[in-house]
């Protein structure tokens, strides 16, 4: 299982120089990918183009960019620009966005999200491959092409939690990115659903990038209480609430990866056994706790990342793909 780490807004307010430093630190530590979410601050694609161009030796990816407010012609141009800037080490993670935010902030429709995403990907993927499109569809019109010489199409991952969106991810994308979906949900729902959809389309098993809040600490109970309070709003978001209910969890504190070094290793092994191909780790806690967490994750990343694939000690954590090579996508 590959181990990546979040950078940018999800870690808290940071200058561009600080974000670049976070990516450099991640590369030096041996993480496979530095992931940036599109929030309300930095533009994730722009930041990764700048940081990735300055920091070699690590993949960069978005986790995720909501697409409702970005036409596929626009996103294709942005994506290929990033891919060219970082020398082919980019993974595009996209999603429909949280419905209540898309409606209230942008005034955009959120009905039929899986139908809209399927049509969006039917346009985006050809554009990323350098093809011209003439599409007049049910939810989308797109006519044109994107010409960036030398830019190769990156892997495309789709944020998916419900069955319909997971089927779209299995049939139309290279995998999925989840956030705060627990190990039981991943093993019993997400991995088998996306796998079945891919198999029905004659495709290999997609990547499953599982995003978690992570903290290495000796006081697990106290940290779970802190995470529950700090991220309480997530429990009110219908998309996440459905996953917590499926897991049998009250909220974020119960699904976060929390505990001492041995406990974290056991939790990661459970994720690998569930079929997770990539961990997207977001350290939480005090500065000291985050530093400890990052150090432990870095040790695991070095022992299970691409360079260890030829002789790692724990085959359950051996990576199944090189996460930033376009020809490794399924």
Features:
45% helix, alpha/beta, TIM Barrel, eight-stranded parallel beta barrel, disordered C terminus, 12 helices, 330 residues, two-stranded antiparallel ribbon
Q: What does the model show?
A:
- With 330 residues, the chain is of the alpha/beta class.
- It has a single domain, classed as Alpha-Beta Barrel (TIM Barrel), CATH 3.20.20.
- Helices cover 45% and strands 18% of the residues.
- The chain has twelve helices and twelve strands.
- The strands form two sheets. An eight-stranded parallel barrel has the order 1-2-3-5-8-9-10-12, surrounded by eight helices.
- Helix 2 (44-54) runs parallel beside helix 3 (72-85), helix 5 runs parallel beside helix 6 (163-172) and helix 7 (183-200) packs parallel to helix 11.
- The longest helix is centred in the middle third of the chain and has 18 residues, at 183-200.
- The protein starts with a strand and ends in a 26-residue tail after the last helix.
């Amino acid at each position: 299982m590959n181990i990546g780490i979040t950078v940018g807004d999800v870690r808290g307010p940071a200058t561009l120089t600080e974000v670049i430093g976070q990516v450099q630190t991640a590369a030096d530590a041996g993480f496979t990918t530095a992931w940036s979410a599109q929030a309300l601050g930095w533009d994730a694609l722009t930041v990764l183009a700048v940081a990735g161009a300055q920091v070699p030796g690590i993949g960069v990816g978005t986790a995720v960019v909501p697409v409702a407010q970005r036409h596929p012609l626009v996103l294709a141009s942005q994506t290929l620009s990033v891919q060219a800037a970082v020398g082919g080490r980019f993974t595009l993670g996209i999603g429909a966005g949280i419905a209540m935010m898309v409606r209230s902030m942008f005034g955009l429709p959120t009905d039929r999200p899986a139908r809209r995403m399927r049509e969006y990907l039917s346009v985006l993927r050809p554009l990323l491959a350098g093809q011209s499109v003439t599409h007049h569809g049910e939810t989308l019109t797109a006519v044109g092409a994107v010409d960036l010489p030398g830019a190769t199409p990156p892997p495309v991952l789709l944020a998916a939690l419900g069955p319909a969106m997971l089927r779209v991810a299995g049939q139309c994308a290279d995998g999925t990115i989840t956030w705060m979906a627990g190990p039981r949900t991943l093993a019993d729902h997400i991995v088998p659903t996306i796998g079945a959809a891919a198999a029905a389309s004659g495709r290999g098993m997609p990547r499953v990038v599982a995003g978690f809040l992570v903290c290495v600490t000796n006081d697990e109970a106290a940290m779970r209480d802190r995470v529950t309070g700090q991220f309480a709003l997530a429990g009110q978001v219908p998309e996440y609430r459905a996953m917590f209910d499926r897991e049998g969890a009250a909220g974020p504190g119960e699904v976060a990866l929390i505990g001492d070094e041995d406990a974290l290793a056991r939790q990661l092994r459970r994720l690998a056994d569930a079929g997770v191909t990539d961990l997207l780790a977001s350290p939480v806690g005090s500065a000291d706790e985050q530093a400890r967490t990052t150090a432990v994750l870095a040790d695991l990343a070095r022992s299970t990342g691409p360079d260890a694939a030829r002789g790692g000690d724990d085959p359950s954590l051996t990576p199944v793909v090189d996460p930033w090579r376009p020809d490794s996508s399924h």
